[in-house]
Amino acid sequence: MAERLDTPKTARRTLLPKLEDDAFGKVSEGIARFMGTPRFLLWLSLFCAAWLVWNSWGPEALRFDKAANGFTALTLMLSLQASYSAPLILLAQNRQTDRDRVQAEQDRQRAERNLADTEFLAREMAALRIALSEVATRDFVRSELRNLLEELVEEREAAEDDAADTSRDPAARDRVDRGRADRARDRRAAAEEHGRTPAG
């Protein structure tokens, strides 16, 4: 029978308490970090030395782990500590592995974004370079204006000379017309030559 979606499910009860993975991982990582420090080794060495000294040369009635029994309690305690240390260290290593995996994924995504941005900037620079190559430079515009100014001055002087000649000699009109045609032809040739010249 299908479960009703409008009815909340009852919480399952377990015998063992439910612990958060992240909280337990932080605790285990802290313990593993402390066990890997010189302070822990020093305290453990002092504890073992005090244990051995007390149970070897202490008052006979107060010895709780005799040397005749091979320091059974100390051996059991150290074995228990070692059996718990290994899983704690493995848990800390697993957390570090997860962090490294997340960091590697973030680095990969960041590298992909940087590569895409670099390619976009390279394309924009190439398009800008092509656009700038088609723009007339300042020297080219200046030379064109200078040529136009010289042509205007020459035309003005020629017009003044032609007016003076035609007023004195009617036969000079033919020479004036030929001169104008020659100058027009020269201007067209110069314009075509500048049109073929690539912009600076």
Automatic annotation (TrEMBL):
It holds the Pfam family DUF1003. Residues 165-200 have a biased composition (Basic and acidic residues). This is DUF1003 domain-containing protein. The keyword Lipoprotein does not apply. Keywords: Membrane, Transmembrane, Transmembrane helix. The chain crosses the membrane at residues 40-58, 70-91. Residues 156-200 are annotated as: Disordered. It comes from Cellulomonas hominis.
